[in-house]
Amino acid sequence: MFLGLIITGIIFSTVSNINNIKQNNARKISTQDMIYSAKVANDKQQYNEAIIILDKVIKKSPKHKKAYYLKGLNYTKLKDYDRALVSLHKAISLDVNDSVPYNYIGIVYYEQEKYKEAKKWFLESLKKDNLYHKALYNLGNTYYINKDYKIALKWYKKAYSVEKNEKDILVYMGNCYSFLNQPLLSIQTYKKVLKLEPENYMMYYYMAYDFMSIKDYENSEKYYIIYISNSEKNKITYDPYVNLFEIELIQNKPFHKQIEKDFLNKFDSYSRGVMIYEMLKIFQKLSIGDKVDLNIWQDKYRDMDIEKWNFSFIDIWVKKEKNSNVKFKLMEATRIFKNHKK
After folding, report:
1. Is the dihedral of CA 127, 130, 134, 139 positive or negative?
2. Binned average pLDDT, 10 residues per bin, the chain of 342 residues
3. pTM here?
4. 318: in domain
5. Are 128 and 69 in contact (CB under 8 A)?
6. Domain that holds residue 297
7. How many domains does the chain have?
């Protein structure tokens, strides 16, 4: 789960003529046009270009506060934090009641992992405008990154009460609910994200995990399949695959053939993902009475840790096994896997 900051409230359009500032001296260009060109350059990640344009604005209009705080934003993108702070403090000196540069200063400190200082500036921004949803969200992030999900959720909720169409706020609200063991609320929140962005397939991954936590295996399986089938294959880790296989295992279902094939083609035969997959296949074989030599698995992965694999779902599944002989073999396999490389 990645943490992102909302830093501007402007949707930048892509245009092809951002160099018109340099090329066309024949006509007078308004500061508004220049600011727009700087925003476009920022959107294209041409931060130095944006700063050049903003310097032209400042030369033309020395008290243009927006030019200063946008310049601060671009310096922040370049990780030139000292220059960013100079520009942002200048913007504040021109208008102490504008909430935006205070928020940007908070971001400068956040990016340097100075979270206490970042909180101070986000709160200063909110003193100027207590409904500034970007500062509310960013303040929530300072608690989220320190795993104080209860307080983070409070600020995210406030941000959402102001701006209901910002998906990032909803995503982190959902994450907080999940971390606070409130999966039904997290699922409801992720569904709201999908209403805003139907092709955000990561939400299916998050919901699959939450459905699994409440033992709704049918929906968990369904959402893992949707996520794996629709996401870019090169960006998917092994986790959703092995989680899906585990869900199918504990429902006594065969593994999804095409997804299993894709998984084996995608991951190296000697990797942690394949190690877990082969462990699950052993459980599957034992559950139907097949003979398995566990020494082969142990020898193959003798230098690899099972590392924090949660056996709780498998433990419940094993306890439900009615065939005493099969149950004994499953319990013995579980013991071996749990103690692997400890």
Report:
1. positive
2. 45 41 55 90 93 93 93 95 97 96 97 97 98 98 98 98 96 98 98 96 97 96 96 87 97 96 91 95 97 95 88 96 96 95 66
3. 0.84
4. yes
5. no
6. 235-342
7. 1
Residue at 242 is within a domain: yes
Q: Are 162 and 133 in contact (CB under 8 A)?
A: yes
Looking at the domain assignment, is residue 131 inside a domain? no
Residue 224 located in a structural domain: no
